[in-house]
Amino acid sequence: MTTDDQLPFDDAPPRVEVRRSKRRRRSVSAYRDGDTVIVLMPASVTKKDEPALVREMLDRLERTDPRAPRSDAALLARAEELIAHYLPGLAPPASVRWVSNQQQRWGSCTVGDRTIRITDRLQHSPDFVINCVLLHELVHLQIPNHSQEFHAAMARYPDLARAEAYLEGFTDATTATRQSR
Fold first, then answer.
1. What is the pTM of this model?
2. What residues in the chain have per-residue pLDDT under 70?
3. Are the C-beta atoms of residues 14 and 58 closer than 8 Å to each other?
């Protein structure tokens, strides 16, 4: 069994724009501009060397810049991994997607059509938090209430208390921000 940090959460590759500069001598850098990654490199870099440098910059950005949004496809893949680890035998949901219209809930599901929606406010949260919210909704596909059976299923998730504490802090910070306006 792998840890939560090892569960796949891959998104489609970003759009990349390479900008070459005659003034740049050696350094290669990259930054995000919306949904595009801008890679700056010296004009002297050969076309043969460019793909490796771009890949290196994308890897570096991925490690250091958590702003990249996660896709619906990655969320569905994560749901399938969570099912395999914590709810074997559960049929996968028909769809899992990020939504922007949930301001009071972290997630919701519709048992009848087996769909799950997760608030996009959590897109930049740590994986263990997203896993917890997603697992909560997956368990609801099997147990539509908050019974002891539901809580026993959720208790299988080792980071449950940590995720709940994170979400409580997130709520407190959001509430404090709204009240100070």
1. 0.64
2. 1-14, 34-35, 65-69, 174-181
3. yes
What gap in Å lies between CA 168 and CA 84, rounded to an integer? 27
CA atoms within 13 A on the CB side of 52: 5
Is residue 158 classed as helix, strand or coil in its secondary structure? coil
151-155, long-range: CB < 8 A, 24+ apart: 153/86, 153/87
Q: How far apart are CA 55 and CA 175, in angstroms?
A: 40
pLDDT in tens, 57-109: 888 887 776 666 678 988 999 999 999 999 999 999 999 999 999 888 999 99
**CA 37/CA 20 separation, integer angstroms:** 14
With vertex at residue 165, the alpha carbon angle to CA 160 and CA 169, rounded to the nearest 5 degrees, is 150
